[in-house]
Amino acid sequence: MANHARLFSASGSKTWLSCAAAATAQLEYDNNSNVHADLGTLVHKVGDLCLASKDSRDAEHYIGKDLKKYFPDGLLVSTVFPADMAPPIQSYIDYCRALQTRDSVMMVENRVSYRPWIAKEARGKKNEEGFGTADCLIVSDNILHCIDYKNGSGVHVDVKNNTQAMLYALGVYNELSFLYDFDKITMHIVQPRKQNICEWTISVKALLRFGKAVTKRSRQAVSKNPKFTPTPEGCQWCRKGMAGDCDALIAHTLAITSALFDDMTNPDKRTLLDNKKLILSTIAAVEKNVIATLEAGDEFDGYKLVEGRTTRKWTEDAADYLQENYDPDEIYLTKIIGVTLGDKLLSKEEMSQHTFKAQGSPVLAPESDRRKSIQTDVTDEFSDVTS
Ligand code: SF4
Questions:
Q1: What is the 165 CA–ligand 1 centroid distance (Å)?
Q2: What are the residue boundaries of the structural domains of the chain, listed by start?
Q3: Residue 37 C-alpha to ligand 1 middle, in angstroms?
Q4: DSSP states of 291-341 as a string?
Q5: CA–CA gap between residue 50 and residue 201 (Å, rounded)
Q6: How far apart are the CA of 296 and the centre of ligand 1, in A?
Q7: What is the distance in A from the centroid of ligand 1 to the CA of 21?
Q8: Could you tell me the sign of the dihedral formed by the alpha carbons of 81, 82, 87, 92, in that order?
Q9: Residue list, ligand 1 pocket, CB within 6 Å
């Protein structure tokens, strides 16, 4: 029996909206929570508590406090709020508070349903699919702000055409359109640990067009033979793909790579670069899959398991031995602290006086990248020739 709560989740929507087959194909693979996800849940909770507090509480209030009463299922590894998470969530709290006006209404951690846009035949019987929790909603006049906090510091989350945010926006529209007469929705992503704060406004008309696409895709997902459509965005977080177990993805990756190596044209090179992440992650997933096969005692033609390279390490009693037999100058290295620790020790003025940002060496980025392109001036190289 399909788990419908996971089948059309908003967080996994990039995958099932890109590939109709992915919705059901990845159900058999684990979706284990990890320490990073746990931390995000805890940090979100502090944001909710502060925004909902009557005394405009700040995140600092919760540092070192055990919040386990909010997580009675005991699933989180740690429920003590760490000090280093206070500044990022405080930026989100300040951001939401700054959007408030005298006439606006703020709603925190609101459960919203985009179920009306999941095709009837794709809905489970228990009403469990098509729900999400909107971190913070602010309604004023004819505009609705939908603010989502992201605790990650790895992947930059863009707001434009972000399907998770758009599904939440549909859910919010579903819940509030009979009360308020808004004609546009502004979605915001606040991801302070990645220095990313962005917003994107969509008209209700365009949002409802997206809703139609959701209905169509969910109908295809539960059809007899849903189509596998490998794409870099869709496959990136697909559990079937990450398990190295998707034939369609492997065939697609092989097709891209095998046709290209003779007389590569510029469009060929671009195809390779556009698919770099997909190719590398497919290879990594297949490697993991083969290791698991060999570890289970099965054979895999052409490969075996060997002991990995290791480096020499001191034994447990080595420190005592060195201290007894050698001078401190010989066995200890003293080095200056890094700039991150410097931030904690020095004032802002001192830091700006004694630090500088070195110019980064050029890296390749797609046109859509938000950074400015480097202007290279090749005439310098020919100055000797022209003068
Ligand atoms: S890995 Fe890609 S092609 Fe395969 S099921 Fe997942 S999204 Fe679809």
A1: 22
A2: 4-32+100-221, 232-295, 318-352
A3: 23
A4: HHHHHTT--BTTB---PPP------TTHHHHHHHHS-HHHH----PPPHHH
A5: 26
A6: 25
A7: 7
A8: negative
A9: 15, 19, 21-22, 25, 228, 230, 234-235, 238, 240-241, 246, 248-249
**Ligand 1 atom at shortest distance from the alpha carbon of 242:** 1
The protein residue with its alpha carbon nearest to ligand 1, atom 2, reads 235
- Shortest-distance atom of ligand 1 to CA 252: 3
How do the pLDDT tens digits run along the chain, 387 residues long? 344 456 888 888 999 999 999 988 988 886 654 556 688 889 999 999 999 999 999 999 999 999 989 887 777 778 899 999 999 999 999 999 999 988 888 999 988 899 999 998 888 766 567 788 889 999 876 788 999 999 998 888 999 999 999 999 999 888 888 888 888 999 999 999 999 999 999 999 999 999 999 999 999 999 999 999 999 889 988 999 988 889 999 999 888 887 666 677 888 888 888 888 888 888 888 888 899 899 888 999 988 888 888 889 999 999 999 999 999 989 998 889 999 889 989 999 999 999 998 877 878 888 887 788 887 666 665 555 554
Pocket test for ligand 1, best of 249, 254, 278 (most atoms within 8 A of CB): 249
Q: Which residues neighbour 43 within 8 Å (Cβ) at sequence distance 6 or greater?
A: 81, 85, 88, 89, 149, 151
Q: Where are the beta strands (DSSP E) in the chain?
A: 105-113, 131-140, 143-149, 184-191, 196-203
What tokens appear for 179 in the block?
A: 């009360």
Cβ of 245: how many Cβ atoms within 10 Å? 17
Closest residue by CA, ligand 1 atom 5: 22
From 14, 15, 277, the mutation candidate for ligand 1 (largest count of ligand atoms within 8 A of CB) is 15
